[in-house]
Design a protein that fits this description.
The complex is a heterodimer of chains A (488) and B (291).
Chain A: E1 20-21, H1 34-52, E2 69-72, E3 77-80, E4 83-85, H2 91-111, H3 114-119, H4 121-137, H5 140-148, H6 155-181, H7 186-194, H8 200-220, H9 222-228, H10 231-238, E5 245-248, H11 250-253, H12 259-267, H13 280-284, H14 304-315, E6 323-326, H15 328-335, H16 347-368, E7 373-379, E8 386-387, E9 393-403, E10 409-416, E11 422-425, E12 437-440, E13 444-454, E14 463-472, E15 478-486
Antiparallel strand pairs in A: 2-3, 3-4, 5-6, 7-9, 8-9, 9-13, 10-12, 10-14, 11-13, 14-15
Helix pairs in contact in A: 1-4, 2-16, 4-6, 4-8, 6-8
Chain B: E1 16-21, E2 24-27, E3 31-32, H1 33-52, H2 71-95, H3 98-103, H4 105-122, H5 124-127, H6 151-160, H7 185-198, H8 209-219, H9 221-224, H10 250-259, H11 274-286
Antiparallel strand pairs in B: 1-2
The chains are: A alpha+beta (488), B mainly alpha (291).
């Protein structure tokens, strides 16, 4: 905890401080425990999904891409297993982003920076890079020693460094490689990539992502979280007193002593804190902070200090979770001799869950009932209406038929509204007069110029609503759109 | 700068910038070094930009930069590429017959798109941007055609024009029966009312139908045909329908009969290439009135 400081205690000519400070290199120590296991599991899951998802196949029928997740930019389609989205359905992404944002808020109000500590790509890849570093250069103390050493480098040390950076670059390269596979048929692209037949843009993107992965996870690391990411700031503004955060329970920990001294004092029946000032929580921290200073911007709440402290507490025979998911309210309550209270269900968590359920529900409903046949109608603006030589009225419309299915359709068009109206589509000599039929190929649209003609008799209104029905004559699927039939 | 040497935040014990908002002071947090370096690198980068890209204004031009880059050159390249892509398609359009173009959805879409653009550039001043026409300029959306509304006839009219001076132009005009002294004023009034009666419009009191019929038979039938149904060979409009190029009221008709009419449609052959004229014909035909 930052103690209040009396300004009088500080030197009066304390200057404005330095303009900038160097990045303090962090050497996280390896650790094992509950949260480390959770992190390993989630890392394997996240990376597994990211690296292998493009290879998952999904049968959509002949002529359609067979990749389960595919962003097909040239054809403006997004495929996700059974879902296929067109550009005009981009609102599903809006829904997805709303759900994602509120899920972030919900995580935050339940367990603090769960996203930052376990799921954020920056954390996952940095964790992976640290694992590589540890494997090659050794644990915290060895790495610190090697970095500090002023001896001229031996071949062994040089090969270590080369190996580490090579593996990092390899991981970065694979990260970029997996990225481009989401935008093209993965097996085909892999074949093209290795035979240098792939489009230049694929290599450029792989290069960019190799570089960003290498730089962000290998060098920038906690600097990204501390200085670049907006979420720590937003998170701090969104949290409340009931949110569980990785917390040093100073009510239990203070005053800190050594193991030996604590035993002596306890024997005398004196009150002693459990913290033995072993600095294990600091040693394992991937952002290099001391959790005992209280909640802080730099803390990504990965829980590794909990594992470190638990191990120490077990060794010295004190109860675990001197550091744990907790909040200030409970620290206060324990200090007052009351039992801690945990409120997972409270107004904001209920509200966030409700928003996720509502938006998610709407998205699922609209996706499940998504029409595979649609029609858009645009009335001609100039001229709005035409008088024909026999005195009848003609209006022209631009009609776009959308066939979102995986098969060709034969679509019949009807227009209902004006009395005794006839319709004609330019370029179509229909075998069924007044009910033009058009073949719309699978997964495409057809734009038609459609004329509606009606006699002036029986249609005296200036404007008559006209409803366009389009029917798949094979399946009976129907879509419709409304416009107006206007007199000159 | 205010002197804030002793301006220390009592909670964190750190110096502040001295800037205060509603009692909250900003802590003086040093920047990370890589941030400062990045900032200076952007300045270096900007200097590089000045050197390789057009940057500094001079009196009558600007520095061109080592790369010789210009957005205008980019546009020229893009346009050339576009022309290359279009070229092949326009060849296909030029090779197809008019009737085939309307039957092929891809060619129809191309012809309509091309036709619409060219129409806007060349035809809209008289016929209006949507081809709705105006007094003296025919509406191209309706089914009434002075020189015929089939694809071939429309194309011919676009190619050679009407009274355009082109060797193959449509000829034929409405004579000035009054100005040239062929008909007397009262005969013109009678003829005007006779024409109104042809398409069911009311006539003025005391109008002599028999006299009108006689005047029409002697002067008008030659071009407008028996019963006034018109003749596309001569550009003589049908007088029995509901469409009037100049107006159907008596005063306008009297003006038309006595002064004559001879609107000009320019010939586009030689000004537009054949494939473009084809696209235009398909576009105009597809506006709705094509026969």
């Amino acid at each position: 905890m930052n103690r209040p400081v009396n300004p009088k205690d500080l030197p009066l000519d304390d200057d404005n401080g330095p303009l900038y400070v160097a990045q303090k290199k962090v050497y996280p120590q390896s650790i094992s425990g509950t949260f480390r296991r959770i992190k390993w599991g989630l890392m394997a899951f996240c990376l597994g999904v990211y690296y292998f998802l493009p290879f998952v196949r999904w049968n959509r029928g002949l002529g359609a891409p067979s990749q389960a997740v595919l962003i097909d930019l040239p054809n403006s389609r997004f495929y996700f297993f059974f879902i296929e989205l067109w550009p005009q359905e981009v609102y599903y992404f809006t829904g997805l982003l709303i759900v994602a944002a509120v899920a972030l808020f919900l995580m935050n109000s339940v367990g603090g920076r769960i996203w930052c500590g376990y799921l954020c790509p920056q954390t996952v890849w940095t964790d992976l890079f640290y694992a590589v570093e540890r494997l090659i250069e050794g644990d915290r103390r060895e790495r610190m020693k090697k970095d500090k050493s002023s001896d001229p480098m031996k071949l062994e040390r040089i090969s270590e460094i080369v190996l580490k950076h090579s593996i990092w670059l390899l991981i970065g390269w694979w990260t970029g490689g997996a990225w481009v596979l989401y935008f093209n048929d993965a097996p085909t692209l892999v074949k093209e990539l290795v035979t240098f037949q792939a489009p230049m843009i694929a290599y450029i993107w792989i290069g960019i992502l190799t570089a960003t992965t290498y730089v962000l996870a290998g060098f920038m690391r906690e600097q990204v979280c501390t200085y670049m990411c907006p979420w720590p700031r937003i998170q701090a503004a969104l949290t409340d007193e009931w949110a569980l955060n990785v917390t040093y329970r100073y009510d239990r920990g203070e005053k800190r002593t050594s193991v030996k001294k604590a035993a002596e004092l306890r024997a005398l029946g004196e009150q002693v804190g459990d913290c033995v000032d072993c600095y294990q929580c600091v040693a394992v921290c991937p952002t290099g902070i001391d959790i005992r200073n209280g909640p802080q911007l730099e803390c990504i709440q990965c829980g590794l200090c909990i594992d470190a402290c638990d191990n120490v507490m077990t060794k010295i025979g004190r109860p675990k979770r001197l550091i744990g998911y907790d909040n200030d309210v409970n620290i206060q309550r324990r200090q007052e001799g009351k039992a801690p209270v945990y409120r997972i269900v409270r107004a904001r968590t209920v509200a966030y869950s409700a928003i996720i359920a509502a938006v998610g529900g709407i998205m699922f409903y609209t996706l499940a009932t998504r029409s595979l046949l649609d029609v858009n109608v645009l009335h001609d603006r100039n001229p709005v209406a035409v008088r024909l030589s026999d005195g009848s009225i003609r209006n022209a419309y631009t009609v776009r038929l959308l066939n979102k299915s995986g098969y060709d359709r034969v679509i019949a068009i009807d227009a209902n509204g004006p009395v005794n109206a006839t319709i004609h589509v330019i370029g179509i000599d229909s075998v069924t007069p007044d009910r033009p039929m058009i073949v719309v190929p699978r997964d495409s649209t057809s734009e038609l110029r459609l004329l509606v003609t009606a006699p002036a008799e029986g249609n005296p209104e200036k404007s008559i609503p006209v409803r366009f029905h389009v029917t798949d004559i094979g399946l009976g699927e129907v879509a419709s759109a409304t416009d107006n039939f206007v007199a000159p | 700068m205010t002197d804030h040497h002793s301006d220390i935040d009592p909670v964190s014990g750190r110096s502040t910038t001295g800037h205060e908002w509603d009692g909250i002071k900003e802590l003086n947090t040093p920047l990370p070094r890589w941030w400062v370096i990045t900032f200076y690198l952007t300045i270096v980068w900007a200097i590089g930009y000045w050197i390789v890209y057009p940057a500094w204004p001079l009196i009558s031009s600007n520095t061109t930069g080592l790369f010789g880059y210009s957005t205008r050159a980019d546009v020229a390249v893009e346009l050339a590429n576009l022309e290359k892509i279009r070229g092949a398609k326009m060849v296909a359009l030029g090779a197809a017959s008019l009737a085939d173009i309307e039957k092929d959805p891809a060619l129809l879409a191309l012809a309509r798109a091309k036709g619409k653009t060219v129409f806007g550039d060349n035809c809209a001043p008289c016929h209006g941007s949507g081809g709705a026409g105006a007094k003296g300029y025919p509406n191209l959306n309706d089914d009434d055609w002075l020189w015929g509304g089939s694809l071939d006839q429309i194309m011919q009219t676009i190619q050679f024009g009407a009274r355009s001076g082109h060797a193959k132009t449509h000829e034929g005009q409405m004579l000035a029966f009054g100005k040239d002294g062929v008909l007397k004023p009262d005969e013109i009034v009678t003829a005007a009312n006779y024409v109104r009666a042809l398409s069911g419009l009311p006539t003025r009191k005391g109008y002599d139908a028999a006299k009108g019929e006689k005047i029409f038979a002697e002067n008008c039938v030659a071009c407008h045909g028996d019963g006034g149904k018109g003749n596309p060979e001569m550009g003589a409009p049908n007088l029995t329908d509901k469409i009037w190029l100049y107006g159907s009221d008596e005063a306008t008709l009297i003006e038309t009969i006595s002064q004559g009419r001879a609107g000009v449609m320019p010939a586009w052959e030689g000004r537009l290439d054949p494939a473009t004229i084809k696209a235009m014909a398909v576009y105009v035909h597809s506006l709705g009135g094509g026969k």
